[in-house]
Every structure is written in structure tokens, then in C-alpha cells.
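Bug report

Summary: C-alpha cells for Ribosomal RNA small subunit methyltransferase H differ between web form and batch submission.
Environment: batch mode, default settings.
Steps: 1) Submit the sequence below via batch. 2) Compare with the web form result.

Sequence submitted:
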Amino acid sequence: MEYHNPVLLKETVDGLNIVEDGVYVDVTFGGGGHSKEILKRLGKNGKLFAFDQDSDAIENRIEDDRFTLIHENFRFIKRFLRFYGVKEVDGILADFGVSSHQFDVAERGFSTRFEADLDMRMNQQNKLSAYHVVNEYDEEQLKDVLLQYGELRLAPAMASVIVASRELEPIKTSEQLKKVLKKFLPPKHENKVLAQIYQAIRIEVNQEMEALKELLLQTPDLLKQNGRLSVISYHSLEDRLVKRFIRNGMFEGEPERDVFGNFEVPLKKVGGLIIPSKEEIKINNRARSAKLRVAEKL
């Protein structure tokens, strides 16, 4: 099954600083591109665990004795690694982008390019879908989703129009949603605004921010000393959380300082922010917004 070219492949795996007999986790398996690169660098006693909640991704399972694929959301990383007797690992890799496969399969409802039912579930077993968000959230909840996750300043007006429209008939498809919100889509920026609307609904459907926070909070316990975290984010909401957690060990506010103004954090950043080269963006346009941050357990 065709998935996508992994973004920043070499840089992300380099960031893990792989030891041959180490234990690693790829929490966003997808098409398996990053996992294959990790396995290339592992010795015969190394181990790689991968997570993916999407049933389609399970078809990309790699046949290798060193590899285990766990069909679960990465927010449960600690629980499922314990099941396999793993309490500490040498590195964790995460690529938070929606896979090209999810964008390219019309019926999944992730892309603004296709007419499709409102779905957007990464785990097709989940009850909450884009249909439920659009048709069952109250106006205040809708406004919050569009404002917080889409960073849309016209979110209050959009929420009001959606609620008024669905009272006449349910909004079932992407095309219907587009028509309902037509007056908010300026011709020159239609795709950009639509992408923000879709992003907001998708993040809510998949509880992406909560899952990301839960994952990050578990990393200091899971990583061995000098173990690495290598994370690719695609929008400012994710990147902000990753950056703050690496810097402060928390998502909001400032850590407590001692009398000398110093504070302790579980991780330290390794190098600076890494973004794709112009060449990579030319080959793979979806890499254009990727940001890689690497951290090490102190």
C-alpha cells in the first residue's frame, strides 16, 4: 500500500543516535519508512516497537524478528510497552503528520480535494467522527474547536452559520460543509482557510493535542539516561507544545526555580530546529511545514 515519503528521514533517525543493541519506538508507524531506516541501523539484538491506531497502516507490517507493531494510539505507550516487558527505551521517534495515504483515500474525509462523508477518524473504530463534531457540538464547542485548533478569527461567525444550517438538514459531506461556509472562503485563500477548518475538526476528532501531551509526559520515565526523543511537528500548536516541554518540562507557565534562578528539567534539547531542505520540499511538497526537534534525557 502506497503511503508517503517519510519527511526528514535521515535527520530524524540520526537524531536518535542509535546504538546497535538498543530498544527504540516509532510511535507513528504509517508506511513504515522511519521504522525501516531504524532497523537498518540496529544490530541483531536491537529491538523496535511501533505504534499505529490506523487499521490501514497495519498492512505495512515489517517482517523482521526485531520488530513488533502495536495497533494502538501512542498515548498508551507506557502501558503497551510494559505488556512486552519493556520499561526503558533508548529512543522514541514521532512524526505527527497525517500520512499521504490518509489524505489520498477520498472516503477517509481528510482532504479538502475530495467530495466525501465527514469522517476524519485515524482510528476507524472510534465513535467520534467529523460528522458528530459538525452536527452535534453546540455553538460554543464548535467556536472553541475552530478558534483553538484552526486559529480562525471568524470562528464565532462560522460556528453560528453551521448551527443554523444543520437545523434545516444535517451536514453530511465535505461538499455540504464547504457550501455552508462559502462566505468565509475568499477565492484567493479558499484552500488555506478550508485547510484550517479541516485541521481544527481533525484535531478534535482524534484528540490529537491530548494524545501528544500524554505521550510527551511519559517520555522522561521511558527514556534511559542519554536516550533520545526525535519529533516532527507540522503546525504551530504541536510545535509549541514540543518546544515548551523540552525547554521547561511543562506545557504552560514556568517551572519552579531555586534561589539562584535555576530549574531542573528532565530533557535537554540537542542542536537547533531542523527544517526540510528546498530539495526535499521540491520532491515532497507536504514536507514544507515540518519542524524537527531532538531532545536527550538528562
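Above is the batch result. After comparison, the two runs are identical; trailing whitespace caused the diff. The CA atoms of residues 70 and 80 lie 8 Å apart. Residues 99-110 have pLDDT under 50 and may be disordered.
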